[in-house]
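User: Okay, second chain of the day. Same drill as before: sequence in, structure tokens out.
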Amino acid sequence: MKRRRIQFYQRLFVLSVALVIFLGGFLARLPIDNKSNAVLASQAIQLPLSTNGAKIVDAAGKTVLFRGVNWFGMEVETHAPHGLWKRDYKEMLSQIKSLGYNVIRLPYSVEALRSNSASGIDYSIGSNKELQGKTPLEIMDLVVQEADRQGLLIILDSHRLNDKRIPELWYGDGFSEADWIDTWQMLARHYKNQKNIVGADLKNEPHGQASWGTNNLKTDWRLAAERAGNAILGINPNWLIVVEGVENNVPGQKLTHHWWGGNLEGVKRYPVRLSKRNKLVYSPHEYGEGVHKKPYFDDKSFPKNLTQRWDTGFYYIARQKIAPIWIGEFGGRLVDKQSKEGIWQNKFVDYIREKNLSFAYWSWNPNSSDTGGILLDDWKSIDAPKQVLLSKILPIKFTAPPAAVAIMPTRQPEQAGKASVTNNSSPPSSSSSLPPSSRSASSSFKQMQVTSKIDSDWESGFCATFKVGNISSRKINNWQMKFNMNHAAINNSWNGIFKQQGKSEYIVTPLNWGMAIEPKQVRDMGFCANKLSAEDYQPKQIEITINN
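Assistant: Same drill. Structure tokens below.
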């Protein structure tokens, strides 16, 4: 008996070793994504952040990669993030998070933070009513706090001094250097306990007269960055200090053409000296021909000449482990592989992926005239080809739709306690006065309305949105949506928790802030999915259940 037991364990041991070898070989053949070892979601990040050579690291020493967007508006006359005339600010933040971004670069102007007024906000839209009567700084507070609740980091960006333009230097346009530093000190003090604010981008895009390493106190941006950075760290030692480059005026620079804020050639000889060396991050900006036609776009070596430019202009800083690089801005309208801007943008995304760099895309907003945004002009739909490209450097993948097809709901029999709508290929009743793309059916209690629409439909996938409205005269506090969907698998969703129940039924629970719907208020939610079949893949038998 003992011998048989020994033989059994010997065989078990041999089998275990063989299994380990097999699994090891199998896993070794799997594609390796070097982002998998980095912290991409803020929930996993242990704050505060610091730097270690070329890496941004959290308090546990784990590498953190910023995957961000720029959401502008607080630096111009509105004094508030743009798009709030169309969207609830909490929904906007939720959509940013749902696409795989983990940080927002939030621009402001010194003038805005000294103002008592903001505009460009529809206070009747959902949670935007919380912003009514608030100062720009108080609006920033609420946006930052909600970003924290949703697991998003914030880097503040001193984008302008006044509301009109980006100044060459850190003073001018009616403001002094003291005004600029005082504003930073106020923010460092004001947000000292707001942990999801992790950094200060000291000044957006120094250019023109701005120099680096010249020791001219009036123009040397490197010296000004030291003064401001150390003033901030004296109050809030936990923040990262983000320093952009200049345009020209760097002794011994090799390249003749740089973008505003993109020239960091001077760091090699003239590094920024902070009181806390492990808080410094350098941040170039980079754009394509759609923003400005630089001579190197017409060079016969294009696009092969781009990599050397980036290595010379800024990447050597990370390669030599001087400090981390965070691409604070890049973007453009075209992402194709034929136009020069599209070729540039594809190549730069590949470069970011290859070098494992942090970034913040310009912009979330669609109303950036020369770049457009991740959102389209309706402030809701995604520029799918652009998001497909960016998903190469995001944890959530996205597939591009070439066209959009609407689902048109038809009226269904009344159901007690439910608002129901089923999608059908036949047109809705002609008695409805609503436009075809927004017709909906309501319950017998006339409490809620739901509309569904396919925003994008392509060979391998589609994206659908739902509009759930309260058409009653009282507040509805607790509701869920249910629908059936065959032959499709959800890969991305926003503004709700989509859970599959059984083979084809889905239960959708709104996020905490969306549980309550005021009279006449509408909540948006949606998803993208992969098609498992060319037929019968659209959501149907949609129901809203009120659990008051």
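The domain at 409-546 is CATH 2.60.40.290 (Immunoglobulin-like).

User: Thanks, on to the next one.
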